[in-house]
Amino acid sequence: MNPEPDYSAAYAVLHTDAGDGLEGHSLAFTTGRGNDIQSAAIQALEQWVVGRRVDEVLGDLGAFSREMVHEPQLRWLGPEKGVVQMAVGAVLNAAWDLRAKRAGQPLWQHLARLDVEELLDLVDFRWLTDAMTRAEAKAVLTRALPGREEREALLLERGYPAYTTTPGWLGYSDDKLERLAREAVADGFTQIKLKVGADLTDDVRRMKVARAAVGDDIRIAVDANQRWDVGQAIAWMHALAPYEPYWIEEPTSPDDVLGHATVRRAVHPIKVATGEHVANRVVFKQLLQLRAVDVVQIDAARVAGVNENLAILLMAAHHGVPVCPHAGGVGLCEMVQHLSMTDFVAISGTWADRVVEHVDHLHEHFVTPVQLERGRYRAPLAPGGGGEMHAASVADYTFPDGPQWRARGAR
User: What angle, 0 to 180 degrees and rounded to 10, lies between the N-to-C axes of helices 305-319 and 134-144?
Assistant: First the structure.
């Protein structure tokens, strides 16, 4: 479904005149020509940002989020979905990056140390209360209060569980798949993921190769990237079932809540996972209400930033469904790790059956790249939300005038 990704992104920076040298950095990941439209949507939010007092904005990021999300004209394009919602996410995530830097804390720690009412004030409960009221969300956070300090210490000591997509890209030879799968296990990963959906015969063979390479104790997730109709998804997964896939990711349209529920019933005990392309908290609400997914997959740059992702994390915890984020593109690993770590310390209070995706490319462009050790994300200690790129990378790769684009004949 995504045959031409170039791993570019719309990059947002918030500057201030404070003189402290601190800026807020974030991105929206749209993989190519869509970035022209995404950048225009981010620029359309300037009136809500430029000229504002920094303390006013950073002091109430719940209100700031609602101002942008409910902007009466731009929201008409969604409402609350697509490039406008992602633009809000880019601006809001940049504001959180700046706030965490000013606090001298990594974003996960900054969020996880907020008191219960502060966290609740960040969430827009409109349209959610039939699935989770503010009082029910408060109960989730209150249950997680005991042990916050201990879990933070454990996170710093052990890191957060990860899984790797590196072995499983379509187009790899069987030998390369086998080698990378074995290397993943040797590196400490307990779960790998394979892309599927192009050819059933090939997928059955590749699953057989992968299962033989990693053994019976390693989870193998598969990801169809929305390629199938509902019936096709069910038939395909029945063919792969002998090799015990752990979950099927994005088996069909991300908007098809009933379709996901049908697939889930039909392929059990294989789990159904989705979320990287789910547009907003309301669709996640329905997926949870209808028991259409076993695994919720948030994305740091798809919905309206940290605030909407907090709402989704709270709903998932309230419904007892684990969250395993998507992080398959430029900067997504760096950003989304903070959300899972917040969830562990302050929301769900557990990392059982929870993993964050990891891919092994493009981290060198980030000021605070992710660090993995024995298949686990090491908790970042640098202040901020992880989305800041090196100035040299931004200069070299800015479209269309950066030297890296000029050398490729950018168009």
Answer: 80
Residue 225 tokens read as 């990237």
Nearest in space to 188 (alpha carbons), one of 162, 165, 167: 162
Asked whether the beta carbons of 10 and 38 are under 8 A apart, the reply is: yes
Distance of alpha carbon 365 from alpha carbon 391, whole angstroms: 9
Q: Which residue has the tokens 């002091």?
A: 59
Cα separation of 399 and 405, whole Å?
6
Domains, the chain: 148-392 (3.20.20.120)
Whether the Cβ atoms of residue 370 and residue 358 lie closer than 8 Å to each other? yes
**Confidence band (pLDDT; 50, 70, 90) for 409?**
confident
Ordered DSSP codes for 86-121: HHHHHHHHHHHHHHHHHHTSBHHHHHHTS-HHHHHH
Alpha carbon distance 204, 164 (integer Å): 20
One-letter amino acid of 56: E
User: In the structure encoding, which two tokens stand for residue 92, read together?
Assistant: 């809001």
The pLDDT tens digits for 112-157 are 999 999 999 999 999 999 999 999 999 999 999 999 999 999 999 9
Number of H helices, E strands in the chain: 17, 11
Please identify every residue annotated as catalytic.
Answer: 195, 326
Kindly give the pairing relationship between strand 372-373 and strand 356-358: unpaired
* Cα–Cα distance list, 126 to 18, 66, 133 (Å): 35, 11, 10
pTM summary value = 0.97
Place of tokens 């929870």: 354
Cα separation of 373 and 123, whole Å? 33
Closest CA to 152 of 346, 296, 320, 362: 346
